[in-house]
Amino acid sequence: MVQFPGDRVTEQQGCTKLAEKGAIKVSSWELKDPTCCETLCLTLRCSTWDKSRGYLYIRDNGSFEMNDTNGMHSCCCVVQDNIWVENFDRAPWDDACKPAPPPCCCFCYKGVPKIEVMDLGCMCCCMHCDPCCCGKRVVIMPFEMFPPPCCCCRNRVNKCDNCCELCGGVTGNPKIFNPFIPQPKDPAAFVEAAQLALAQAVNRHGAPPDAEEMDR
């Protein structure tokens, strides 16, 4: 096997530092197929769902690497790869000061976001309904407890929000969350592996998050 180790001698810091010199080990995750609604939207704009070049990696140096080509492949032309890396010691995963979401944009808070599985759909007459067959998805919940001035409120749907599960969001789902793109085919297995990778990165680089933030 031919190796190209490179000539770098400058020491790397944080999650950019390789766990093994000259190599990055990854776990590669199968991407989720499109829902019925997504397939219809793509068809209307003459596009297809292309997983052949898309990928989702958890890298052993403490980072995610993604190439999101899903829904970008047109029948008429080839779209460039859309690749980016998120290191666990930088936003959105670090314990840095962040602006609160609307309507409290003038406030700031500190905290480590939580990656978890969200059950899509809604509650109707005490039954869970998923009319678009979206299933479960990985999301990034920025905080468990709302920042000031609402710091006594949890960022989760409760029975007061959905009229005792008669109508509204699914109990336990985050109220405010950010999407995770691209989506893995097995959200639960991916979240379990991602939480382990986040915890290992914390052990290597310090600045541990609050225990409650990593327990789910």
What is the fold's blueprint, element by element?
Elements: E1 26-28, H1 36-44, E2 47-48, E3 55-59, E4 63-67, E5 73-74, E6 83-87, E7 97-99, E8 108-110, E9 114-119, E10 122-124, E11 127-129, E12 136-141, E13 167-168, E14 178-179, H2 187-205
Antiparallel strand pairs: 1-3, 2-5, 3-4, 4-6, 7-8, 9-12, 10-11, 10-13, 12-14
Which strand-content bin applies to the residues? 15-25%
What is the count of distinct domains?
Answer: 1
N- and C-termini, Cα separation: 41 Å
Quickly count the helices.
2
Helix/strand/pairing category: alpha+beta
Shape: globular
Whole-number radius of gyration? Answer: 20 Å
Total beta strand runs: 14
The helix-strand sequence is EHEEEEEEEEEEEEEH
Q: Approximately how much helix is present in the residues? A: 10-25%
**Strand order of the biggest β-sheet:** 1-3-4-6
Brief summary:
By secondary structure, the chain is an alpha+beta fold. It has helices at about 35-45, 185-205, and strands spanning about 25-30, 45-50, 55-60, 65, 75, 85, 95-100, 110, 115-120, 120-125, 125-130, 135-140, 165-170, 180.
Task: Walk me through this protein's architecture.
It is built from two helices and 14 strands; from the N terminus they run βαβββββββββββββα. The chain is α+β, with helices and mostly antiparallel strands and 216 residues long. It has one domain (25-206). A four-stranded antiparallel β-sheet has the order 1-3-4-6, covered by helices on one side. Strands 9-12-14 form a three-stranded antiparallel β-sheet, covered by helices on one side. A three-stranded antiparallel β-sheet has the order 11-10-13, with no helix packed on it. β3 (55-59) and β4 form a beta hairpin. The termini are far apart. Mean pLDDT is 82; it is low at 207-216.
